[in-house]
Specification:
Helix 1 runs antiparallel to helix 12, helix 2 packs across helix 11 and helix 11 packs across helix 14. Helices cover about 45% and strands about 15% of the residues. The longest helix has 23 residues. The protein contains 14 helices and 8 strands. By secondary structure, it is of the alpha/beta class. The protein folds into 2 domains: about 170 residues, no CATH class; about 200 residues, Spore Coat Polysaccharide Biosynthesis Protein SpsA, Chain A, CATH 3.90.550.10. Strands 3-2-1-4-7-6-8-5 form an 8-stranded mixed β-sheet.
Length: about 400
């Protein structure tokens, strides 16, 4: 029983070392092999459709549109399509102000969620390439042409931006930037070894024929994009120079809820596409999917059998009771802190990096519970990323 106890208790550590240390190291070793990307020549820039889903985004939609209009891409080769998920505020009116500059509004008759709106919008898309972005983020001026340039490689079906976490003043947020930067480095290594297994929801380009394939309404479209591309014989890449500024969420509680929604939809998406986990059939892609997605989720989930392992060890090691009690207390503190910080910025008495890691793992457990109980997130709730006092004020019509 002691051997079993130690085996179960060590599961989280083993999985964490593999997912966050060994997997990147293997990717780094594989990335040293040369790239054989083939690019096709284009007579003129392809027609691109930029899609911006929005629900009650009157505080942010103007800035998102201005950032897209500022892209260094020919205006006559660009379609901007804002999908209003039956917004009830001034979002639609603000979008209409830009109609003379080529911005189109497609309003859903009833709120049905982001994925449902994107499925319905397929018939309105005119571009060869579709760039999906979000009202709360800001594509940098070179992002669009760089994403399109990556799609010149005939083997690429999806090209994703590199996200940068920013604060109130637009500077890098050290706490979130640490994890986001790590994630972007992993995607860069995956790109150099064949491709990524999930695009950034903040901004990614996809071939129109792939985008038009409907996605189940409770699934994550950005995660599904890379999986759909793989099934169609394409690979997905991350474009390091295509930057997208992602503001920090305003409160710990809001960030926690965002993570729960994102992870639970990711779990649904992976389960729906579970055949892609077949290492025999899908080989390197399946290995990346298991390592990048599944193993990361299994780290916090493995704390449940680890607790059983600690209980099995208590007869031989009574001090294990203190370990269990400390873990339980920590879980309670993190949960209460998340709730306490509902309308506040991240509390200063706990290092944000530590709190972010703990709440992230707690969010996985919460999301897994929702997934297990069959709670599907059909209705999209957009992330309100701006901090108090940072909301964009409505200006004069464009």
């Amino acid at each position: 029983m002691t051997a079993l106890g130690w085996g179960l208790a060590s599961l989280p550590l083993i999985l964490a070392v593999y997912a966050y240390v060994a997997y990147p190291a293997i990717l780094w070793a594989l990335a040293r092999r040369p790239s054989d990307a083939a690019r096709s020549a284009r007579a003129k820039p392809p027609l691109v459709t930029v899609v911006v889903p929005a629900y009650n985004e009157e505080a942010q939609i103007r800035g998102a549109i201005e950032a897209i209009l500022a892209q260094k891409y020919p205006a006559d080769r660009r379609q901007i399509l804002v999908l209003s998920d039956a917004s009830t505020d001034a979002t639609d009116d603000i979008v209409r102000e830009y109609s003379a500059r080529g911005v189109e509004l497609l309003r859903m008759p009833a709120r049905a969620g982001k994925t449902a709106a994107e499925n319905s919008a397929a018939r309105s898309i005119r571009g060869e390439i579709v760039v999906n972005t979000d009202a709360s983020v800001r594509l940098q001026p070179d992002a669009l042409p760089l994403l399109v340039a990556a799609m010149a490689d005939a083997s690429v079906g999806v090209a994703s931006t590199r996200d940068i976490s920013v604060t109130r003043a637009g500077n890098a947020n050290p706490a979130e930037a640490g994890y986001v930067g790590y994630e972007m480095r992993i995607r860069a290594l995956e790109t150099r070894t064949g491709g990524i297994v999930g695009a950034s929801g903040s901004g990614y380009a996809i071939r129109a024929e792939l985008h038009r394939k409907p996605v189940r309404e409770d699934l994550s479209r950005d995660f599904s994009a890379a999986l759909t591309a793989w099934r169609a014989g394409f690979r997905s890449v991350s474009v390091d120079a295509a930057l997208c500024a992602v503001p920090r969420t305003a409160s710990l509680g809001r960030e926690y809820r965002r993570k729960v929604r994102t992870i639970s939809r990711g779990m649904e998406t992976l389960y729906f596409n579970r055949d892609l986990l077949d290492l025999v059939q899908h080989r390197e892609f399946a290995w990346k999917l298991v390592s990048h997605k599944l193993c990361r989720w299994l780290v916090p989930l493995s704390t449940l059998p680890a607790a059983v392992g600690l209980l099995l060890l208590t007869p031989s090691y009574p001090w294990m009771w203190y370990v269990l009690a400390s873990a339980a207390l920590l879980l309670i503190v993190v949960g209460l802190t998340t709730r306490w910080s509902e309308s506040r910025l991240f509390p200063s008495w706990i290092p944000v990096s530590v709190l972010g890691t703990l709440t992230g793992n707690l969010a996985v457990l919460h999301a897994a519970g929702r997934f297990w109980l069959g709670h599907h997130d059909h209705i999209w709730e957009p992330t309100r990323r701006t901090e108090p006092g940072l909301e964009e004020k409505r200006s004069e019509p464009a």
